[in-house]
From TrEMBL:
<dbReference type="InterPro" id="IPR007343">
    <property type="entry name" value="Uncharacterised_pept_Zn_put"/>
</dbReference>
<keyword id="KW-0812">Transmembrane</keyword>
<keyword id="KW-0472">Membrane</keyword>
<feature type="region of interest" description="Disordered">
    <location>
        <begin position="39"/>
        <end position="71"/>
    </location>
</feature>
<keyword id="KW-1133">Transmembrane helix</keyword>
<feature type="transmembrane region" description="Helical">
    <location>
        <begin position="12"/>
        <end position="33"/>
    </location>
</feature>
<dbReference type="Pfam" id="PF04228">
    <property type="entry name" value="Zn_peptidase"/>
</dbReference>
<protein>
    <recommendedName>
        <fullName>Metalloprotease</fullName>
    </recommendedName>
</protein>
Amino acid sequence: MGFPGGGAGGLGIGAIVVILIISWVTGINPAILMGGAEQMTRGGGSQREEQADPQTQTRRKTAPTDDSGRFASKILGNTEDVWSQILPNQTGKQYTPTTMVLYTGGTRSGCGSAQAAMGPFYCPLDKKVYLDTGFFKEMEQKFGVKGDFAYAYVIAHEVGHHVQDVLGILGKVQARQQQASSKRDANALSVRIELMADCLAGVWAKNSNDKYNSLEQGDIDEAMNAASAIGDDKLQKQSQGYAVPDSFTHGSSEQRQRWFMNGYKSGQTKSCDTFRTANN
């Protein structure tokens, strides 16, 4: 099918290619990404101005001034401390810290336009995590998920994608997805990479707690509630009344909870190899 004007809804071919790359890596529905990009280019949707101020990056001299920004920066710093220690010890690979870009409404990423509707994501092209500052409030309002550790789990999941990138896993899986013979097979690969990121978030949580004794009673329950709320099966049932497993891109609620706990119980990156198991 042709795209009038050289792209879908006025988007250029280059923008469409970038959106498809993000979709392959993050598992986000490309239709959602294109819709967000169209709103960005047309000025529609939220009607908020795009904010691409480089001062929104958390790895900088000036710390964020709002509560959510300070919290996200704190969690990111913790992941740096933990992964910089355990990744070389467990894999022999040095950890290169990522950067988190906090924004409101929309900004630009190395993978193209970022928009609040896309949710948090990791861009392997610029090695950065993108997070809209209103996402935590959206989690509470839309999914009934709240609690500091629920939010920390989301950030740790995206950092988990960066760990995959550092280990060279993300690029290999992306190549396999592009060669997949069907959308079903490509989705299955996406599920495995997302569940691995959940597991790596659990590995971080275990090692962070061992190092700082930072977890309180109920923290893991908060992470489990978040993992359950954003499972593909639950989201699909809420939106259309039924689930279609072949269309899953992140995994079911049960899978996401199980793989997080797998990483948390072991504390070892080797326990997160979702590609060596017959079933997810």
